[in-house]
Design brief:
globular; 46% helix; single chain; alpha/beta; 8 strands; binds S-adenosylmethionine; Rossmann fold
């Protein structure tokens, strides 16, 4: 491994934005997580499979996640590999963002100019944000806006530095967002609204996939939005970012052809998901589409995957994941007035899952 000292590091190079101490701390987390997923998860999985508690003859339906957990938890709790995996996952999640924040603050003078947009993104919330949004998702201390540059910390340090190594072998872990953007029902759109855009990971892929479209992207996190705006400016893209709730966008009626989101819905309770579909219906012109990508439905996952998703969500500060994975999203879409509702698996195995639907035309 090549060691780059702080004096040699060029902050314009993504892997070198973090100082040496920060890189060492995050590399330790990477080693722990890759060792864990590489060596321990398969062991735990084998143990579950060999126990037979999810075998077809037990009659357990994966949609009944309480029954799945009751069957599997006692088996894994007895396994040292699982206990180590549980402890290290919890610990690595708890420390990743604070270490990123500290690394940012140590180099604030250097990094702040790279993190700041030409002007802060406009806040349309009037301070009225849903209570569920203030939860510390993924164990992020202080929540989405727990630091004035949390967007930069999440994007550059947690996602680009840590998660690309844990999940992507250094590759583009955001390629799936581009693949998802390409799966929207029409080939072109004039006006797209991206809900829960974060630092623009999906928004920028939408801009690639639909270069002619006017894109409006909303989120509730000021710091995520500010860095999204900065990323768009750096890429030479004209995207309209606003701080607003997905269920109360403040945008005009019938002003969009596509209302979309990627991994937003599992971060809200079912009543808010219903409000998002209602808001999308209001925003769409007749014939327009929704296209929402989110967590796989437990009912179509294997027993092991459903257990693993649910266990991970419980230990990864994802309070609404289980409900999103067991709520009938297609039914919510139909209740909101949509037609041609379809659910599809973006990847084999059933996670993530896409939902597409159409606002009917008058003549329908
Ligand atoms: C997991 S991130 C996904 C970000 C982005 N779509 C992506 O592909 O990486 C979820 C985002 O949804 C935002 N969010 C959660 N609830 C929201 C709501 N009701 N309205 C707008 N944004 C919301 C959070 O602030 C966060 O930035």
């Amino acid at each position: 491994m090549t060691v780059v000292t702080d004096a040699q590091a060029d902050p314009r190079t993504p892997g070198q934005r973090i100082d040496q101490r920060g890189r060492a701390e995050l590399e330790f987390v990477v080693a722990l997580r890759t060792g864990m997923t590489g060596a321990l998860r398969p062991k735990v999985r084998r143990r579950i499979e060999e126990s037979g508690v999810l075998a077809p003859e037990t009659g357990i339906d994966t949609a009944d996640i309480v029954a799945v957990r009751e069957a599997v938890d006692p088996v894994v709790e007895a396994a040292a590999a699982h206990r180590f995996q549980a402890a290290s996952l919890r610990w690595s999640r708890e420390i990743s963002t604070p270490r990123g924040v500290e690394a940012f603050d140590r180099r604030r003078e250097l990094l702040e100019p790279m993190a700041t947009p030409s002007a802060p993104v406009e806040d349309l919330t009037d301070g009225d944000v849903p209570r569920y949004w203030t939860y510390e998702f993924h164990a992020t201390e202080g929540g989405w806006d727990g630091h004035d540059h949390m967007g930069f910390v999440h994007h550059e340090m947690v996602y680009q530095y840590l998660l690309t190594k844990i999940y992507g072998g250094g590759g583009d872990i955001f390629a799936l967002r581009r693949a998802f953007a390409d799966r929207a029902p029409a080939d072109t759109y004039a006006d797209i609204v991206d809900l829960g855009c974060g630092t623009g990971q999906y928004t920028l892929k939408l801009a690639e996939a639909y270069p002619e479209a006017r894109i409006t992207a909303l989120d509730l996190s000021q710091s995520e939005l500010n860095y999204a705006q900065r990323r768009a400016e750096d890429a030479g893209l004209d995207i309209s970012f606003r701080r607003a709730a997905a269920e109360r966008t403040g945008l005009p009626d019938e002003s969009a052809d596509l209302v979309t989101s990627y991994i937003l819905l599992h971060e809200m309770p079912p009543h808010a998901i219903k409000s998002v579909f209602a808001e999308a219906y209001r925003l769409l012109r007749p014939g327009g589409h929704v296209h929402f990508g989110d967590v796989g439905a437990y009912a179509t996952r294997s027993g092991y995957d459903a257990w693993n998703d649910d266990w991970d969500a419980e230990h990864g500060n994802e309070p609404w994941w289980r409900l999103a994975a067991t709520t009938d999203i297609a039914e919510i879409a139909r209740e909101a007035g949509f037609v041609d509702v379809e659910r599809y698996e973006l990847l084999p195995g059933g996670h993530p899952m896409g939902t597409t639907a159409r606002k009917p035309l008058q003549e329908d």
